[in-house]
Amino acid sequence: MLKKSGAPQIATDIRIQFHPGALHGIRIQFWGLCGTPSYESATGDRDADFFNNIDWERTFEINLTSIFYTCRRAIGHMKGHGGGAIVNIASCWGLYPGPGHAAYCTSKAAVAALSKCLGRDHAGDGIRVNAVCPNEVNTPMLRTGFAKRGFNPDTAIAELNKTVPLGRIAEPEDIAGAVYFLSSDAARYIAGTTVEVNGAKPVY
Predict the structure, then answer these.
(1) What is the pLDDT of residues 117-130, one digit of tens each?
(2) Is-contact 132 88, C-beta < 8 A?
(3) SS3 letters across 49-87
(4) pLDDT, tens digit (0-9, with 9 covering 90-100), for 65-92
(5) Burial of 28 by CB count in 10 Å (0-12 exposed, 13-18 middle, 19+ buried)?
(6) Residue 153: which of 162, 165, 164, 141 has the closest Cα?
(7) How far apart are CA 34 and CA 130, in angstroms?
(8) Catalytic residue IDs
(9) Around Cβ 11, how many Cβ atoms within 10 Å?
(10) What gap in Å lies between CA 110 and CA 105, rounded to an integer?
(11) CB atoms closer than 10 angstroms to residue 142
């Protein structure tokens, strides 16, 4: 969908402050800036007292700090170019924390809160900031997580599909569709909010 829209796609380590600055050299002509990094701690499902500092800090660097750096740079650019739309990727697990994922849930909750704050702070600048909150998505990261825990990814996803009222977990295109909508003029009056894309499935 991003390719069809003509939006530029940038691969970089946006945990580093310098890298989001690359946006400054791009003539931003796309509908939305999407902050999409996501990281699940290598410690797996553990209580908070088992987290080491490295895993905790890495989770927040990738899931939250990188989005802050990118949004800060994009907002600075958009202010001088008539506004724009930013769509960040949070998570339903940030809105409704599930068990055993304290770092992930907390970091994604912060992304949702940051997006709401920025949306309200910069609406007057003509900049709409929102966040999409998926539940499970059929991505390589999800499949790798199942494999690491000794599950057959196809079988595990088939079981997950049964827990979703719409009959399946999300595909990446489902999330991209929500981002595309929020980035478009069709969502011109939507700002400072979160949109759940979960097939009507609760977190737990």
Answers:
(1) 999 999 999 999 99
(2) yes
(3) HHCCHHHHHHHHHHHHHHHHHHHHHHHHHHHCCCCEEEE
(4) 999 999 999 999 999 899 999 999 999 9
(5) middle
(6) 141
(7) 10
(8) 104
(9) 5
(10) 9
(11) 17
123 forms beta bridges with none
Could you tell me the two tokens for 54?
């490295």
Task: From residue 190, give the alpha-carbon distance in Å to each of 85, 118, 129.
Answer: 10, 13, 8
One-letter identity of residue 63? N
What is the residue whose two structure tokens read 């924390």?
97
User: Does residue 23 have a pLDDT over 80?
Assistant: no
Token digits of residue 86? 């930013």
Full strand arrangement of the beta sheet holding 194-197: 33-35, 84-89, 127-134, 194-197
- Give the pTM: 0.84
Can you state the percent helix, strand and coil of the chain, rounding each to 5?
50, 10, 40
What percent of the chain stands above pLDDT 90? Answer: 68
Between these two residues, 27 and 192, which has the higher pLDDT value? Answer: 192
For tokens 């499902």, the residue is 45
> Would you say how long the chain is, in residues?
204
Q: What is the pLDDT of residue 13?
A: 64
The pLDDT assigned to 190 comes to 98
pLDDT over 60 (residue 164): yes
HSE at residue 174, side-chain half, CA atoms within 13 A, is 17
For residue 153 the two structure tokens come to: 């990814």
CB 153 within 8 A of CB 111: no
Q: Using only C-alpha atoms, what is the Rg of the chain?
A: 17
